């Protein structure tokens, strides 16, 4: 099965994730490597997802939201 390219919703979610990670007070605890490990994906894969180049799976989206403390109201902005 061919992989579908990210759409505008995927890119908007990626932007929310990127901003949430970068806006944390203790940035050393929220490096992209740390987040990738916490949600169980490779650093390169996480990087591509955060930049909106790859789609997020539902389980990855839930895990990253929980880890970064992204609330439902933020997701509603998509």
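Sequence proposed for the structure above (78 residues):
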């Amino acid at each position: 099965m061919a992989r579908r390219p990210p759409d505008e919703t995927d890119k908007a979610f990626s932007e929310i994730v990127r901003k949430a990670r970068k806006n944390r007070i203790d940035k050393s605890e929220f490096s992209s490597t740390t987040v990738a490990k916490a949600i169980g994906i490779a650093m390169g894969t996480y990087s591509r997802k955060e930049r909106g180049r790859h789609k997020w799976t539902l389980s990855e989206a839930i895990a990253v939201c929980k880890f970064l403390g992204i609330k439902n109201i933020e997701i509603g902005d998509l």
